[in-house]
């Protein structure tokens, strides 16, 4: 594991071979999100009826841990990001997805496209 920033740990599952994500890029990812404690999946783009997720990176359009973690990734890379609650949904949590207040999160993210 390597620390991307304080509160975001990254473990490369499969290295990428394409360009590195830069601030302002629109990226498309496959993602599976889990609570760290207790371990529980709350969302996956690979579930039936779901599709890859597209967002602009580095501009605060997603949780801070995603922005910071994805900026260190390359096209084709698969990584596990363990995100401290302060860089996730914090004290509010995200009740609609079963994310409790102050929950640490683990996401497996695959960079599919960078535009």
Automatic annotation (TrEMBL):
Domain (PPIase FKBP-type) ranges: 24-115
One Pfam assignment: FKBP_C
Keyword hit for Magnesium: no
Highest taxon of source: Eukaryota
EC number: 5.2.1.8
PROSITE patterns linked to this entry: FKBP_PPIASE (PS50059)
Enzyme superclass (EC): isomerase
Name this protein carries in UniProt: peptidylprolyl isomerase
Organism: Branchiostoma lanceolatum (Common lancelet)
Record gene name: FKBP1A
